[in-house]
Amino acid sequence: MANMNWTIVSPLRDRLAESPLWHAAENALYWTDWYGPTLHRKLWGQDKVESWTIPGETVLGSFVFARRGRVLLAVDSGLVMFDPATGATTPFANPDGGRDGMVYNDGKLDRFGRLWVGTYELTEQDPRGILYCVTADGAATIGDSGFPSCNGPAFSPDGRILYFSDSVGRRILAYDVSPDTRRLGNRRVFASFGPEDGLPDGLTVDAEGGVWCALYGGARVLRFTQGGTLDASFALPCPVTASVGFGGPDMNMLFVATGWSAGVGTAAESRDDGGAVFALETRYQGIPEPVFAV
How far is Cα 220 from Cα 284, in angstroms, rounded to an integer? Predict the structure, then answer.
């Protein structure tokens, strides 16, 4: 495992940068500060970063792109539609119902246009987390449950496999997915990790079907083959690697969102580049993100 020639996307140092997603139509990279709760956008080839802090919320777990330039956010109050042009938010759905001690966490759209979003138990001890499937009409069903922290998810190129990080359980799970049902089938362990590895966190899948995992506390990103074999390891210069995604005009830039080192109160105290979003040109290509048909 060798250190790679990473570049840093912007001078921002978020407490916990998350969810780097590429908007192909806008030629822009979006990401969040989980604790901000703030959404960032950077147009490709420009230095300026636009940022929107969401009022009345404490965390921004994840987001997906929606029609007419809008963004669906997973925040404390539920799933809300946000319009960057006006700064307005509109409630959309709240499948978790405001349960005590729970917040929304990672979420992605599958290849069939449905949102899969999980919840996170704030102590990371009680297995109350639920992975929900939400359709464009706001209807929600439970895909799986019983996790302290739901992370990932990501989908195979044909959309038939959902990959999910059971972070506290130190494993990536795989499920069969069908466009005809919101039920998940054939749950199995795709990859397992030891205490020395860090926690499996954000996931993405490349066009070849390779599964990429950011290891929180592990200072690296791993690539697995479709069969679950470890294929490559990419070291980063900070331990808190939280999420990963592909983008750029050719979809071959690997973006990794990171956070401050544990136990520090400001970015300046981290003694590393934690909180930055890193980029690396690769030989792999990602798959463009779908748009939620709301």
Answer: 17
Can you give the residue ranges of every domain in the chain? 7-281
Please compute, for residue 193, the number of CA atoms within 13 A of its CA located in the half-sphere on the CB side: 26
Residue pair 246/255 in contact (Cβ under 8 Å)? The answer is yes
Point out which residues pair with 93 in neighbouring strands.
79
Contact call for residues 290 and 249 (beta carbons, < 8 A): no
CA 127 to mean position of chain CA atoms: 20
Question: Which CATH number is correct for 7-281, 1.20.1250.20, 2.120.10.30, 3.90.550.10, 1.10.540.10?
Answer: 2.120.10.30
CA 274 to CA 294: how far, in whole Å? 35
C-alpha to C-alpha distance for 83 and 24, rounded to whole angstroms? 18
Give the span between the Cα atoms of 151 and 194, in whole angstroms: 17
Q: Which pTM value belongs to this model? A: 0.96
Give per-residue pLDDT as tens, 145-195: 999 999 999 999 999 999 999 999 999 999 999 999 889 999 999 999 999
CA angle 211, 240, 288 (to 5 degrees): 35
Q: Could you give the residue ranges of the DSSP H alpha helices within 237-279?
A: none
Question: Phi and psi dihedrals of 267, rounded to 5?
Answer: -60, -35
